[in-house]
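User: Type VI secretion protein. Structure?
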Amino acid sequence: MIRQQAKPRLDPLVGGLTRPPMMLGVPYVLFVMEWCVIVLIFINTKNLLMFLLFAPIHGLAYVLTVRDNRFVDILLVRYGKCPITRNHRFWGGDSYKP
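Assistant: Predicted structure:
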């Protein structure tokens, strides 16, 4: 007879304590990056309608962070600490020495 392992109990208090600061449903870091991109586009085009880009960009950011609130942090660490090397395809992984 095979016993099934019990699923771990997820306490909502722990999830709330480890969640990053949020603004309109997305992590604060991503929210600031959205606005920086929109303001840069506005400065280059001098068109106030560029601020309407906030809705689709924010929607995309919300969709990306629904499953994992730390999505942005994971990407920043991944590409900040482990940059892609030129020989990645040859070795099937990152090799820093020949």
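Strands lie at 22-23, 26-27. Residues 28-45 form the longest helix (18 residues).
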